[in-house]
Amino acid sequence: MNAPLKNLSAVKLALMAQQVRAQSEPVLRADPVAIVGMACRLPGGADSPEAFWTLLQEGRDATCEVPADRWDADATHSTDPSAPGKSLTRRGGFLQERIDGFDAAYFGILPREAERMDPQQRLLLEVAVEAFDDAGQPQEHLRGSRTGVYIASYHNDYAQLQYNDLEAVDARTLTGILHSVLANRLSYVLDLRGPSLSIDTACSSSLVAVHLACQGLRHGETDLAIAGGVSLMLTPELMVSLSKVGFMAPDGRCKTFDELADGFGRGEGCAVVVLKRLSDAVADGDRVLAVVRGSAVNSDGHSTLLAAPNGLAQQAMVREALANAQLEPGRIGFVEAHGTGTALGDPIEVEALAATVGRPAPDAGPCYLGAAKANIGHLEAGAGAVGLIKTVLALRHEAIPPQPHFTRLSHHISLAGTRLAVPTALTPWPRGAVPRCAAVSSFGVGGTNAHVIVEEAPLLPAGAGTGAADGPQLLPLSARSPEALRALAARWRDFLHHTPAALSDLVFSAAERRTHHDLRLAVVGRSKQDIASRLDEYLRGEPSHALAEGVRLATALPRVAFVFSGQGPQWFAMGRELLDSEAVFREVLTRIDALLRPLSGWSLLDALRADEATSRLNETEFAQPALFALQVGLAALWKSWGVEPDGLVGHSIGEIAALHLAGVLDLPEAVRVVWHRGRIMQQATGLGRMASVGLDEAGANDLVRPFGERLSVAALN
């Protein structure tokens, strides 16, 4: 033990630790967390955040009748809430596609194991992979990483179905239905080594998951996290049970804040976000969608009833989240409320918001209220993550969606004297001098409350381009089956027709920020339309010189050699496109030009840019330095793309390029050798000048002798 601490009592040490913790905790809690990726499968065909935004801004109702492949709605429905074994509603927010489809082979799962997996596990795997793709996190980078998994769910529908037939229970049943395996299987499949938690706090579960993920990032437990929730309606039992408690709306719709609010309609789907410390996201060049400024979780404690909300607890939670975010209440411009549409819950929630973020303040504009439950139903364990994604989309699109099924404010709710408002149309919410902030609330039926505060993404400087926007670009695509590759090509073709993103950004993301599978397709083009047309040709089975299709080698990659040529292939316009479009190539030739000019009295760059009539590249004195520079620049460009040679070989002037890249000659030495060699060859006569076959052995030794024994050693190697 250090001498100064040796004589301190345990009490003094504890008091010192308490003081340090009190000083550091507020800073730690306010450490911003970036949302770098999102994915979802939601009712109404909202199988992506973009499709979800379209549904939201149109104010669509995505609920429908119970699908026939779930259960017999006629047999389980009654308008009498006291009828035994009956549900008050036959409607909800169901996914449009069948939920029994699953690409087991993609995840390396045997079909017989997949059959025993809860469809919630299957859906989560697929949506999680989409979220990591959206975040630009290739699976090969995730393997073995300290990536945390925080996933919410609380339905046992599939377990009920499995245990109804005890004779069918086998070795795969347990891992197929355990809640803990929901997160654990994702960690297992992708080899993620951070915390792996399945979370159940009822309807607040997925927002609690986001809170815990942010805490894990702030405390250094993980460096990347995925958080969210999944919920599927497979059997009618929970619908019946909720009807008996009085929670269900007969029409299966959430009429949030409205006078006609009479309960909620259930919804299903999956929603997840990928999180990273903002400092790390900026340093790594990640796209930041929004920033989590702060969050809080608490409990209702001993309220009126176990299932009844506690307004004072909600107020305390909002204030704690604001304090953690170090924000004033007036900064909040939108709240995605829990807003289930119950006659009791909505008024209590609005009252708590009115007492906190809804209070008028100088320079504070309106604070709008909304709830996506009115669009797609209450996703229960996934509801908080859905609300978070909606909020991020509103910030990014600079608009607040209209609130469906809102015609007249409930007489139990008063907005008088507050800055709270409910939008009835798509409402502009533009960026301003002060970053916009929003909040998301989610409450569990047992009393666990969660609140997350989100700020718009900072305007970060664009990264340096990798090439000219009008130059040829390569789009690499890959999949694990021929059918999947064709489907991916079709999606890219359609996407390229309407995306506003620059082609250079798209091909960079496809190359550097996507997982690369065994079946490969590469497409070359100069524009988005060009590449879309080439993909169309591929899908029609037409041959194209701009397409290449193949399979990744199962063995180790072949060794790579760089071969450098001698004089002869030079021509007046060589290297011009690369000089204009590739910064790495241009930088190397500029350095060589600066070294060559004092020796030669002429400019390499000017010589390369001369037109055909004035070009002197047919003269050895100009050709040999130009060929050397061109090949050294090309090698540097290949290396910048990750292509490193295992061996180097050169002929004539190419030998000097090979020696330089092997580390035998530094660049100034190599340029001096090239210049002297070219000058001597220019002065040669007869066959020596015509054929440019190089110096004889004695001449070469005289030329390179000043550089010592390194050349002969390199030649032997």
What does this structure look like?
- With 717 residues, this protein is an alpha/beta fold.
- Helix content is 41%, strand content 15%.
- The longest helix is centred in the last third of the chain and has 21 residues, at 620-640.
Question: What would the keywords be for this entry?
Answer:
alpha/beta; 29 helices; eleven-stranded mixed beta sheet; 717 residues; three-stranded antiparallel beta sheet; elongated
Which class of secondary structure composition applies to the elements?
alpha/beta
* Spatial order of the strands forming the largest sheet: 5-4-6-7-1-8-15-14-9-10-12
Distance between the termini: 56 Å
Radius of gyration equals 33 Å
- Let me know the number of strands: 20
Q: Give start-end ranges of low-pLDDT stretches.
A: 464-468, 685-690, 692-717
Averaged pLDDT: 89
Overview in brief:
It contains 29 helices and 20 strands. With 717 residues, it is an alpha/beta fold.
Topology of this structure?
Layout: H1 3-6, H2 10-29, E1 33-41, H3 49-57, E2 64-65, H4 73-76, E3 91-92, H5 111-116, H6 119-134, H7 139-142, E4 147-152, H8 157-163, H9 173-177, H10 179-190, E5 196-199, H11 205-218, E6 224-231, H12 237-245, E7 269-277, H13 278-283, E8 290-299, H14 311-325, E9 332-336, H15 345-354, E10 367-370, H16 373-376, H17 383-397, E11 399-400, E12 420-421, E13 427-428, E14 437-443, E15 448-456, E16 473-479, H18 482-498, H19 503-512, E17 519-525, H20 528-539, E18 547-551, E19 561-564, H21 576-581, H22 583-600, H23 604-609, H24 620-640, E20 647-650, H25 653-661, H26 667-683, H27 687-691, H28 697-704, H29 710-716
Parallel strand pairs: 4-5, 4-6, 9-10, 9-14, 10-12, 19-20
Antiparallel strand pairs: 1-7, 1-8, 2-3, 6-7, 8-15, 11-13, 14-15, 16-17, 17-18
